[in-house]
Structures are given as C-alpha cells and as structure tokens.
Amino acid sequence: MILRLALGSLLARSLTVGLTVMSIAVSVALFLAVEKVRTGAKASFADTISDTDLIVGARSGSVQLLLYSVFRIGTPTNNVTWESYQDIARQPSVDWIVPISLGDSHHQFRVMGTTTEFFERYKYRGGRTLEFASGARMDDLFDAVIGADVARTLDYDIGQSIVVSHGIASFSDHDDTPFRVSGILEKTGTPVDRTVIVSLEGIEAIHVDWQGGGRRPGAATPESVIREMDLEPAAITAALLGVSSRLQLFGLQRWINTYPEEPLLAVLPGLALQELWQITGIAEIALVGVSAMVIVASILGMMAVTLASLSERRREMAILRAMGARPGTIVGLLLSEAVLTAACGVIAGLALLYSGLAVARPIIDSAFGLWLPISWPSEREFLVMLAVVAGAAVASLVPALRAYRFSLADGMMVKT
Amino acid sequence: MPEGQILCMTDVAFRWPGKSSFALKVPGFAMSRRESVMIVGDSGSGKSTLLSLICGTLRADSGTIEVAGAELGALSAAGRDRFRADRIGVIFQQFNLLPYASVRDNIVLPLMFSANRRKRAGDMEAEVLRLCRAMGLDDAIVASPAGQLSVGQQQRVAVARALIGQPDLVVADEPTSALDQKAQAGFLDLLFAQMHAAGSSLLLVSHDERLGRQFDRVERIESIARTERIAA
Description:
- The structure holds two protein chains of two kinds.
- By secondary structure, chain A is α+β, with helices and mostly antiparallel strands.
- Chain A is built from 13 helices and 16 strands.
- Helices cover about 55% and strands about 15% of the residues of chain A.
- In chain A, the strands form four sheets. In chain A, strands 1, 3, 4, 7, 8, 9, 10, 11, 15 and 16 form a ten-stranded mixed beta sheet that branches.
- In chain A, helix 2 packs antiparallel against helix 10 and helix 12 runs antiparallel to helix 13.
- By secondary structure, chain B is an alpha/beta fold.
- Chain B is globular and about 50 Å long.
- The interface between A and B is medium-sized, with 26 and 32 residues.
C-alpha cells in the first residue's frame, strides 16, 4: 500500500519526476557507455594478437613497437636489416618467424608486405586464424590480399587492380606497378581488416625505380625485367615470432635485445599491452570519474527536486499523520519514492544504452574499427546500477528527515 | 476516567516550544460515549492545538488526557500514532484526501496503520462500498482519483474514511466551511446518521454557531480552554 501510494504520488508529479528519471537515465547510460567503450576497446586490443610470443623491431619503446607493428598506429623509427632478421630466424629456439614491412598505403589503408606464412601464424581472439571470404593467398608477385573493411569501403572484388601510394598520405603513386586483388579476408575486428597485404618481394618490386621519397629519373624498369630481378629485401619493419618452447622465450628475448650488430627490441605482446594500459589508465580514470560525477549530479538534482516539493506536500504528510501514520512511515514513503525513481532511471538508462549501442555500433566500427559487443551488463556494471539506487536512497534521507521534522512539528494540522 | 466517558481532560497545560510563546490550558473537559459535542471558536483560539492534543500528535506538558480509556501521556509517540489509527477518525476542513490516490485507497488509509481497525472493518471492499452508498456517493467514483471529485464529494469521502472500522471518536475540524449553505445541512445529516450507526462520538469544532442545533452539546472554546500569548 505504501508502495502504491508512493507510485501514485510519483505519477501525480509525472513531469518533474519524469525529468528526474530522464536525468538519471542519461547519466547511467553515459556511465555504462563509457564502461562499454573502455572494456570493448581493451578487449578488442587484447584480441588483436594472440599466439605470438615476441614482436621484434628496431629499438624504440615497447608500446611504440606494439602499436606500429600490430595496430598500424604511428610509424616505425627505424628498420631491421634483412641480415639481422635472418640471424634471428636461424636461432634454434625460434619456431616460426614472419616478417612485416610497412610504409606504403592504398587510399586510407596501410599496405603490409609479408610472407604467406603470415596467414598461418597470425592469430587473433584466442587463436583464431584468418579466413578467406573469397579468393586465395597471393601467388604472384603483384597479388594482394585485402581486409574486409578495405573491400567494403572501396567496393573491391577479386581481380581488382590497385595502385599503391608511396608512404602514408602521399601523392606519389606506384602507378607503373599495379597489384591485383587475389583474396579478400573475412571480417576479424582487428587492424587486418584495414590492411592491404602483399608479398615482401612485391614491396621490393614497386620500389625498384625509387630512391628515398621519389621516383628515380629515367625510364621505368619494365615488369618483365623486375620479375627476373632478385627481390630480396634489404630491410623489414618488424617481425612476429613464436618460440619452440616457452622456456626459451626470455633467453631469446635477451639475445635479441643485446644483439650486437644492430639495436633491436623484442617485446612480449601481453606485457606491451599492459604497459599501454598503464598509459591509458589515467585517461580511463578521468572518463570513469567524470561519468560518475554526472551520476552524482543527477542524484543531487533528484534530492533538490524532492526538497523543493516538500513544502507543497506538507498537506499530504499531515493527512497521513492524521490517519495514524508514524513519522517513520513518511520517511519510508519518501525513501521508496526515491528508490522507485532511481530504479526507473536505471532501467531507462539501460534501454537508452542498448538502443544507442544498436544504432551507433556500425558507425563506431567503421570510424574507429571498434566493434562493441551488445552483451548483458557485467557484474561491475550491475554493482554500479545498484549503487545508483542505493545512492538515491541515501540522498533521499535528507528530504526524508526534513519531512520527518515537518511532520513532527505540524502534526496533523497544516494551515494552507 | 468514569465509565461511559470517551474523553476526559484534566489540568492540561501545553506550550508550543520555541519563540512563539503560545500556551493552552484546559482545566477540565469531558465527553460521554456516543455524545456529539460542538466547540465554537474563532480561528486562533487554540482549536487546532486542542484537537492535536486529543489526537495525540502533540503531547501535553502536564495534566492528563484520556481517550477511550487510554492515557495519552503514558504512551510513546509511536504508541500515540497507533492509538490514533485505532480509535480516532479525523476530518479536516478541506483537502482531506490524497488527490493522486483512488477514493477507495483514501478510505482504507486508516486501516493500513491499525490491525484492530482492519479487523473491525471486516470485508474491506464491501465496507468501502457500504460507506460510500451511505454517504450518497456513486459506486462508480470508488475507483477514480480523489482529486477529480467536487469539494462536497471529497468531504463525504472524508467522512467515510473517518468512520471506516468504527473508531470510538471522530474529530472534525471545520468540516463544513468549504461547503455552501445547502450542502452543509445535507452533509451534517449524513454525518450524524453514520455516526449513530457506527456508535462513535463526535467532536466538531467550527466558528459557525448555526450548525449547533443537531448537537447534544455546544461549548464555546473560551469556556473549555484558556489561551495565553506571551510577547516574545
């Protein structure tokens, strides 16, 4: 009955209560959205590389190496010479090694030179391998495999001829040596989706007539001549490798890091990610903090609205008191109103979040390559929602105690 | 308290706490069971304070107030609240009802706070309908929100609420002042009929002496209570 009265009283003030519910809903949705993006981004980063024991590159920061080799974010400071690469590959503890050569682009997508072994060794989301949606691996020197986003965005199909641009965001094209799309990969939710994969030799081939940042003057070398050339690369950007035994991992890492011929760096992807989280942690805390403050603000708003409504509800309190309600009942009434309001706000916030996610998901995916899962709220998120309701209950104690004092002083008589 | 009395106040003194020094003294006032008493007084004469003391929302500083055999001063605040729910029906001047709740919920409100009264009321829904019919209210309004009713209807619903579960004493504070002359007479007739049917006593305060004809006894507030105002 108290609950029914509380409900009736809330419905009678549906405009102010509705706005309060809205403000709580928006704040809860904001907080949960931040949580979703935060955990979604982390999960998607962590899912990008698996089963790779070490990433090897020129000496720089481990986060930087991880970012440019796996996530195609930023640019490498230096290359690894082919001799060093072969030296590492010859180490007995190395089970497999896949070279990566970056630096060119096609439209907004990066071009990566590698070997066909990449398709077997590159694993994501707990050991999944790359699958072809159509076509096959590169077979010819000028074959290219494109990621799902590349195919979708540029509307490419098998057999499409593509011209690679020199460098990133440049205007000089390798238009004399076009590639042909030989395969299109399934969507993975990793940066591979936005990558054009060609052979290492292909990368060398398109640079035959180039020196530094531009084309060497003179006639272009005909394709037939290029095909006859020795296209062993002079250097690569990085390499992914796996060890035959986990026991040898740190020994190998040490060996690479102290390689005398050239300053190299080998990092464990998991550890580099941890380092990355430490950097982003501050921003995360700030985001979570701001959205938590928005929730606090909306609860304070509810408290203010309840306080403001008290004076006009003194009559209501007096009636209840005259009927034999204890002051405690009146506190209970206000408390249950606050809990009901907050609960409605939380539920509306969830609805807002999920409908927002459903709408924004493809947009976020294409803009940031971040596929947010629509899943049940996590335990932590449930706790946050509970905390909102509990916080509303605690906040309502202020108006409730005021009402308690009013009803003690007024008794059942109110002159209005 | 002699047998057959519903209310007995002896040497009661009360002073509002705080700066507004308003004090009320009641040397002696009593009411018999089933008696109807009207107290005439102007506003500011201490009527509301007197009623609050009788209903137990205010506690006398000294003296005894006995209602239906219970000494209010001996009860705790919660005890007085329970006692009020049990024994007393209250009718205000106006805005008696929770406007957002249905007529039915308004009428059964006192039953929520007293198990005894709930027991006396018996079948709650049937009793609500019976009282509404007895007060000349249409069955159809029982489910509608109280805020949609006319003032006259609201006052009759308030009587039904005061009488549900047969309280020993009904206390009414200017219940007719919001009604027009014609409605006043009809309202009082219905109130008296139901009072007698329920076997309750009625204590009504009003400034309008013309209402007094139907009452067993009419008292002026000055003859019952002495008020003092001490300039702060």
